[in-house]
């Protein structure tokens, strides 16, 4: 039986692989690319859990560079309507860039906040 750490690492590998596969499938869908038709796939997702999963994926890379990632979540996880894959892609891109330009021994702060947007029309 694998240790807890090994189980956590296996889950991390699995999650990362699933995210990469989703991105590859999206890119290989030539019809979507040809039509330039990237419609959002909206669904109800827990925002804390979604962002926490991305942070966990990138913590290994941060540890290697001796950078800390500090996540401040909402007090209660909230289900919101959003395209989970797109949010994951954007978050990974932003955090990867932050890691690239953060010096050793520094900290990257990630904060989940809810902000209501007003109706402009």
Measured distance between first and last alpha carbons: 58 Å
Please tell me the CATH architecture by its name.
2-Layer Sandwich
Mean pLDDT score: 81
Q: What overall form do the CA principal axes indicate?
A: globular
The CATH homology group name = Histidine kinase-like ATPase, C-terminal domain
- Strand order of the main beta sheet, please? 1-3
Query: In which range does the helix fraction lie?
Result: 55-70%
Question: CATH class, anyone?
Answer: Alpha Beta
How much is the radius of gyration in Å? Answer: 17 Å
Largest β-sheet summary: 2 strands, antiparallel
Q: How many DSSP E strands?
A: 4
Q: What is the count of DSSP helices, taking H or I runs of 4+ residues?
A: 4
Topology-level CATH name = Heat Shock Protein 90
Domain module count: 1
Describe the structure.
The protein is an alpha+beta fold. The chain has one domain: Histidine kinase-like ATPase, C-terminal domain (Heat Shock Protein 90, 2-Layer Sandwich). Helix content is 56%, strand content 15%. It has four helices and four strands, in the order ααβαββαβ. The protein has a two-stranded antiparallel sheet. Strands 2-4 form a two-stranded parallel sheet. 5% of the residues are buried. The mean pLDDT is 81.
Characterize this entry briefly.
With 121 residues, the protein is of the alpha+beta class. Helices cover 56% and strands 15% of the residues.
